[in-house]
Amino acid sequence: MPKSKVYGHVFDDETERNVLKLKSDGYISELLGPIGTGKEAYVFYSHDQHNNTVAVKIHRHHIGAFKQIPTYLRLRGTGSRGYIKRIDDWTRYEFNFMSRAFNVGVSVPEPMRNYKNIIVMAFIGEDDVPAKPAVQDRNFEVDSWYKKITDVIVLLGRRRIIHGDLSPYNILNLKGNPFFIDFSQALKLSNMTLPYLVRDITTINSWFKSLGFADTKSEDELIKLIDPLLLNEQ
Ligand SMILES: Nc1ncnc2c1ncn2[C@@H]1O[C@H](COP(=O)(O)OP(=O)(O)O)[C@@H](O)[C@H]1O
Ligand SMILES: [Mg+2]
Asked: For ligand 1, is residue 57 a contact (CB within 6 Å)?
């Protein structure tokens, strides 16, 4: 981890204030270099008050960053105005869904704190080397991963949670164990959001088929395990 470089002045003023607030409340130290950068979020290393490494995910406050947010807000039934507030809502949703998944025992990084557009969570990696997304680290047991991932889809579904962006990019491989990240597109399962659950299952099935796994379960089979009544809605 590049400890010498401190990232303090690359954000908009609002985000800088939010980082400072988390620092002064003792949740994080300085931001110590990037772990990953997506289109809409940065993920940084930092330390918590016990000097444990944590991951700090910051959703960017810029207008182009929420093209899909209006649809999501409609599906989620919220409607705050102004893009900063929307991104803060978006981040809070991610944190809340992540926390619910964590609380039912899904392997997600432990969510530690949400403040506005920032999420502080446990770092997934070994000795400050982040675990790689499964798309980059194929060192896992295909059969047992298919079972684990579909078990998670079913467990979350029974709790009325859809991950919403499940793919080998959002599953980290920590020494052969899958960790589920990026709940930024999670949704509450309902008749209206069922297509998003179907999409997650389809993505996982095509990924495993591409790995040569022949025993995938169909969308209907998995949905039936979650709630057979949903099948009538398709
Ligand atoms: N808790 C974590 N521990 C280690 N690496 C992480 C963690 N959270 C995210 N990352 C890394 O940051 C990248 C981006 O995070 P993600 O939540 O998927 O954001 P985005 O919404 O930009 O896709 C991930 O692909 C992963 O490599
Ligand atoms: Mg992601």
From this structure: yes
Q: Using an 8 Å Cβ cutoff, are 149 and 117 in contact?
A: no
Any idea where the domains of the chain sit in the sequence?
Answer: 13-128, 131-233
Centroid of ligand 1 to alpha carbon of 36 (angstroms): 6
On whether the CB atoms of residues 97 and 158 are closer than 8 A, the answer is: no
36 C-beta closer than 6 A to ligand 1: yes
For 13-128, CATH gives: 3.30.200.20
Span from the CA of 179 to the centroid of ligand 2 (angstroms) = 12
- Domain 131-233's class? mainly alpha
Read off the pLDDT of residues 2-48 as tens digits, 9 standing for 90 and up.
444 555 556 888 999 999 999 999 999 999 999 988 778 999 999 99
Q: What CA–CA distance (Å, rounded) separates 115 from 81?
A: 18
Banded pLDDT at 233 (limits 50, 70, 90): low
